[in-house]
Write a structure and sequence with these properties.
Layout: E1 2-4, E2 11-12, H1 17-34, E3 40-45, H2 51-66, E4 70-76, H3 85-98, E5 102-111, E6 114-121, H4 123-138, H5 142-148
Parallel strand pairs: 3-4
Antiparallel strand pairs: 1-2, 4-6, 5-6
């Protein structure tokens, strides 16, 4: 196979042509797979849209922008609403202000009963936000900086006399205190019980009877 036909003399290389053709097809297939095909998406709003619906649709528009697509925003007027185009313009300005990663490619304009605006991805804003996020992730924390400078945070003083813990946090033995001897219990004195004397009387026998 001729590699450099414009060289003098031309440069050729001997190789398997079938293998080279297969590898070239694989490289082309890989490049097509990695290529991003930008498309134009469309999102429709109403002038009297609710807050929840507005947030949901706007979040979806942001997802399209992050994927690299352009988004066509359409405000649909119904009946006499077309007499108040400022309502649709207010909604479009709110969308453009909320999506910081997008830029206005086509300014709002009235097309029949619809008002149209086209948003496109803003590469500069995306790169700036990406650089800011990378900087925030790479910034060292205050604790890491203090540790790198050899500084340590002061430890709280926790001196407890009962457990023997010092201010440095190390445990030291507590000397045993002598226990005072308790006096021996004294016997309880009970007063003597006094019994009353028993008086006995002799039985009297009537005269004429013997015992």
């Amino acid at each position: 196979m001729e590699v450099a036909p414009l060289a003098d003399p031309p440069v050729c290389r001997i190789l398997d042509y079938g293998k080279w053709k297969y590898e070239a097809a694989q490289r082309e297939k890989e490049s097509r797979r990695k290529a991003t095909h930008a498309a134009i998406k469309e999102m429709k709003y109403r002038p009297k849209i609710g807050g929840g619906d507005f947030e949901t649709k706007t979040r979806k528009v942001g997802e399209f922008i992050d994927q690299g697509h352009k988004v066509k925003i359409t405000i649909m007027f119904r009946g006499r609403e077309v007499a108040h185009p400022e309502l649709g313009k207010k909604i479009l300005d709110r969308i453009a202000e909320q999506l910081t990663a997008a830029k206005v490619e086509a300014a709002p304009k009235l097309d029949g009963r619809n008002m149209i605006m086209v948003l496109a991805p803003d590469r500069r804003a995306r790169q700036a936000s990406q650089a800011k996020s990378d900087h925030d992730e790479g910034a060292p924390s205050a604790t890491t900086t203090a540790a790198g400078n050899g500084l340590t945070e002061p430890q709280p003083q926790t001196g407890h006399t009962q457990t023997g813990q010092t201010q440095t946090g190390q445990m030291q033995p507590v000397p045993a205190q002598p226990v005072p001897a308790q006096p021996a219990p004294q016997p309880v004195q009970t007063p003597p019980v006094q019994t009353p004397p028993v008086q006995t009387q002799a039985a009297q026998v009537p005269p004429g009877q013997t015992q």
